[in-house]
């Protein structure tokens, strides 16, 4: 997007207010920059990258500029642009600034602020959409994370996935069995070296899972309005049957039932079925009313959005998996903690690293998966102990409701980027590519919006692990991300709140925070202004269906003359 030679540092810095210009050009400022660098160079490697570089830059910049960047929702995107342009680092490396170059980098960033503010505050024009498609993927900054599984973890497929554009392979510990990881991990490192590509690995701990138990017979119909028992199995014969739903007596599931109170909702099978607690008989037995019915099958997942469940974030399996990942050589670059609700959940992983005496420079970046509403309330503490963050829209969509996820995504990405974290956007990014060789228009739009929001990486789950077109899915994410990067600067001003050449800055926007995503879902559709257009066809144009479609919310019917 920007080349270093495009930014005339000497000329641009002359536009700074005199006091700031004098300070920046003084020898004292040079020494100050080096002192700040040493403060954040914890391992004395004489280079800074990632969140350490971001924090050092903010401290080194003149205060008015640092505050202007922090007040701007997209301030961190300027740092990404400046470090990539300054270092010339492409997608195969992590941009880092050396000790000796740090003062020069700070000045370059100041100049880039002035350059972007003056050059790209132009009016948008629809003809801009006709620009040639961006095909140079060596410039791509957004990483593609591919989950490994039967479709992609063979020795034949690993190099193909790397050549397609995979930057990070996800090792899903939910499926760690039979020596698969022991076989696959060396292959990733082998082919990364052979192909001359920097490829990282992310270990994803399963976290506590909540599931209903086994069936006594056929799937049990749950009928709306009925009140049934919901409890922990009393013995091996206490199975799911009409009038009773049971869960196995694991530590986590005992804690879930204990945490439930009257009025709490339990969502079953990704929210397809919903029950509400109407009576608490004991710490292991409830009575629930069926709000949304269906056919209940064995081992279906249970979500409890309104409870912070009092159990360890890491199960016995997670501890075993974490110990395995931490002892790999070379070490994995990231470890994800699933269902993180508070800072203490991440401390459990840090304690394992301490117990195993993992050296600081070999410790993976801790990446909490934000999947529960409670994490949004406790996000500051979570960020403090993290170096990365995943917006895991699967369970988050179940617990928060689908309609509230996009807003939460934007808030989480903005907050994490402001803290200098590496952010991954995940779940159903190109879900249709499990079966189809190309993504839908809506999926490409979703991918590019994640890049516009500021995500550093976009993730493939089933598309890469078990889909029919894993390499094509990687290429689709890579192409959509690169195209979004090439126009992102048109949509976001770098830093419009700095007074330049005597012009008054715009008023900074109201500060946003992740807790805003917990606002109540809007259910008063009489206030809706956006119209719903429904195309008519055999499924919807009968006399019986037309009034149902209107009652459902259709504002405009489309008569397709084709």
Word description of this protein:
By secondary structure, this protein is an alpha/beta fold. 38% of the residues lie in helices and 16% in strands. It has 20 helices and 20 strands. The protein has helices at 9-13, 18-24, 27-40, 50-60, 63-71, 75-87, 102-119, 157-164, 180-194, 251-259, 316-326, 343-355, 373-377, 379-384, 393-400, 405-418, 441-453, 462-465, 470-491, 545-552; strands spanning 47-49, 96-98, 143-147, 168-172, 200-204, 220-222, 227-232, 244-247, 265-268, 273-280, 285-292, 294-296, 302-303, 334-337, 365-370, 388-392, 422-426, 457-460, 533-535, 556-558. The strands form 5 sheets. It has an 8-stranded parallel barrel with strand order 3-4-5-14-15-16-17-18, surrounded by 5 helices. Residues 493-508 have low confidence and may be disordered.
Provide keyphrases for this structure.
562 residues, alpha/beta, eight-stranded parallel beta barrel, six-stranded mixed β-sheet, 20 helices, 38% helix, globular
Rg calc = 26 Å
The largest sheet, given as strand count, sense and whether it forms a barrel, is:
8 strands, parallel, barrel
Mean pLDDT: 89
- Percent helix, as a range, is 25-40%
What form results from the Cα inertia axes?
globular
Determine the N-to-C terminus distance. 42 Å
Low-confidence stretches: 493-508
Strand tally is: 20
In spatial order, strands of the major sheet run 3-4-5-14-15-16-17-18
Portion of residues in beta strands equals 15-25%
Q: What is the assembly state of the chains in this entry?
A: single chain
Instruction: State the helix count.
Output: 20
Helix/strand structural class: alpha/beta
